[in-house]
Amino acid sequence: MSCALAGLPMIIKSNLPEKPLLAYDGDCSFCRLWVERWKSTTGDRVRYEPFQQVASQFPEIPHEDFSRSVQLILPNGEVFTAAHAVFRTLTFARGHGWMLWLYLHAPGVALLSEWAYGFVARRRNPLYKLTRLLWGDHFERPSFVLTRGIYLRLLGVVYLFAFLSLYTQITGLIGSDGLAPVGNFLQLIRANLGAEGYWRFPTLCWLSSSDAFLHFLTLGGALLAVLVILDVATLPVLILLWAFYLSISTVGQDFLSFQWDALLLEAGFLAIFFAPARLWPRLPGDTAPSRLFLWLNRLLLFRLMFSSGAVKLLSGDATWRNFTALEYHYETQPLPTPVAWYMHLLPAWFQMTSTAFTLFVELFIPFLIFAPRRLRFLGGGLLILLQLLIALTGNYAFFNLLTFALCLLLFDDAFLSRWLPHRLLRRRFGVETARPESRLRRWMTAPVAAFVLVAALTQMALMFRVDWLPAPALELQQTIEPFRIVNSYGLFAVMTTSRPEIIIEGSNDGVEWRDYEFKYKPGDLKRAPRWVEPFQPRLDWQMWFAALGSYRGEPWFASLMFRLLQGSPEVLALFASNPFPNAPPRYVRALVYDYYLTDWAERHPQGKWWRRELQGMYFPVATLERKRSAPGI
User: Fold this and answer.
1) Helix (H, G, I), strand (E, B) or coil at 78
2) Cis peptide bond prior to 284, omega within 30° of 0
């Protein structure tokens, strides 16, 4: 393989091939490997033959040229060699012409490309071994039809859980008699922002804020999610799903402000451009997924994981820096599982090792997303392992399932097909008969991809407090912020080291007080932590946040106490039980306790999972009877 620079090609006049012919060294394993890759890219538009079989047909080309480098022979007689031949060969594949353009027009690219070609050519044997090590047996251009099919179905499952979870809670949270009514929220926006409010708060609830419409959005979203799972009209359905979830998230206020809500909206938006453009499943065959949006999804996964690690260090939190964070985490996280009780009892050295592992996976493993095939698989496996460990010890709604789905995009069809029957792959997913993405669709989606990329990189820069960002990038970020297309991420930047819990009580006489038991958050000391993911009890979660501060910073909390005094059925449905089934109590109050997980010595004799210490009053005694004085504690 030579180091010839770009210039005038050799011209031959005899035995011209009917279509472009690339002659390579058939005795070179490294050459055969790359030729298989190029074949999978160019298809039958280029003919590939070992020079040992075709060199005699072209006596004008010296035999030593064949042995030094690949030779591309065009039907018009032009002959190109080395890197120039490679780049020109790839022009016969869609979307690869930019490489030849750079080679011919960008200063220094031709010189650097030919030097690199020669460097590799002189080290073919060791590089062949390295390539096989990093890429495995499948070095041809990977396909992601099966990957996309599984990912979109899992995304449909996530949407289904998200909407069904909301359907059971929506009226108690933001309904007309809920804790933060949508109608009041939108009326306030309209009064303060006027017409600008429609852009700043994009939601279909501007059409109607009734409880019936909220049920329409949530139940309708669940039904649409089923269509995605069944692969029916996936692209238009994904548009509706995104619009429905954005609508609810916009008006959900504190109850839909979680990072997985933002993650679902961002992933859901990207999925619109990643999905096949058809109404019914094609049997067999489909168009290949967009490589641009495959990489944007991977970039989303990178941002999610790397940001989660970076914020832990950027916050300056001592528990992350001295590797003691997990000594507190299992006890103080919002909704622990039963496994968390056992994990909390493990020795300090294990907790420190686990903390170091978490930081390692979040800070370093995400870079493997951009690595060669086998390293990317290793990175995907470790990221999935972390999600499984998190899901075992804490209830984080659909976050772990959605992150797992994004991790699947790191694996190609050749890997995933090992786990599914061949007939299912061929008929259901059309892996073997997928057609290339159309040029029209690439041109239509490329501006959206560029738009998302700029916004994503800007968001990453803002996380690291970069202050020299271009004004247009910042304006773009602010413009799209209401639509949650690109978001910031980073869970548990500061580890909570104690667990205050709010216990709400009601009374008819101010002497005997009864607890309002929540469905999932700690309350009864003998009740074990429960499994609830991927369902999210959003009031239980908000109670965890409220306990970290004052009720004055949580406007919905006073509304909660008021609804309990009213006996609101919608709000009471958010609780495990109603201690006043016949009539609402005269008084309500809220106390705050510090909760601690018990150890073996306390758990078995007493049957207690928790112990607690009273800290004081969280919310003062309240009543609806204006003339009656409120009793003390």
Assistant:
1) strand
2) yes
The Cβ of residue 581 has, within 10 Å, a number of other Cβ atoms equal to 8
- Identify the sign of the CA torsion 296, 300, 305, 307: positive
* Alpha-carbon span 205 to 247, nearest angstrom: 7
In this structure, are residues 471 and 477 in contact, taking their beta carbons and an 8 Å threshold? no
Stretch (H or E) spanning 507: strand 500-507
**DSSP label at residue 287:** B
Mean per-residue pLDDT, 423-449: 68
In angstroms, the CA 330 to CA 314 distance is 22
Q: At which residue do the structure tokens 């298809």 appear?
A: 43
| Cα pseudo-dihedral 428, 429, 431, 436, rounded to 10 | 130
Closest CA to 306 of 360, 375, 380, 352: 360
3-state secondary structure 423-439: HHHHHHHCHHHCECCCH
Is the pLDDT assigned to residue 14 strictly greater than 90?
A: no
Neighbours of 526 (CB within 10 A): 10
Residue type, 319: T
**Three-state SS string across 615-630, please?**
EEEEEEEEECCCCCCC
Q: What confidence score (pLDDT) does residue 175 get?
A: 95
Mean pLDDT calculated for residue range 201-220? 96
DSSP state at residue 288: P
| d(C-alpha 248, C-alpha 322), whole Å | 40
Secondary structure (H, E, C), 299-345? HHHHHHHHHHHHHHHHCCCHHHHCCCHHHHHHHHCCCECHHHHHHHC
User: CA-to-CA distance for 63 and 54, rounded, in angstroms?
Assistant: 11
pLDDT tens profile 541-553? 999 999 999 999 9
Indicate whether 6 pLDDT > 70. no
Q: How far apart are CA 127 and CA 606, in angstroms?
A: 65
**Residue bearing tokens 């309350």:** 523
Tokens of 196: 């600008």
φ and ψ at 479, to 5 degrees? -65, -40
Q: Is the dihedral of CA 604, 608, 611, 614 positive or negative?
A: negative
Average pLDDT in the 328-346 region? 95
Per-residue confidence (pLDDT) for residue 7, from 0 to 100: 53
The residue among 287 and 185 whose pLDDT is bigger is 185
Question: Residue by residue, what is the 3-state secondary structure of 397-458?
Answer: CCHHHHHHHHHHCCCCHHHHHHHCCHHHHHHHHCHHHCECCCHHHHHHHHHHHHHHHHHHHH
Q: pLDDT tier at 274 (50, 70, 90 boundaries)?
A: very high
- For residue 107 the two structure tokens come to 């200063």
Crossing angle (nearest 10°) for helices 29-42 and 124-135: 50
Assess whether pLDDT exceeds 50 at residue 100.
yes
Q: In angstroms, rounded to a whole number, what is the distance separating the alpha carbons of residues 575 and 539? A: 9
Write the DSSP assignment of 179-204 as a string of letters: SS-HHHHHHHHHHHHTTHHHHHS--G
* pTM across the whole model: 0.90
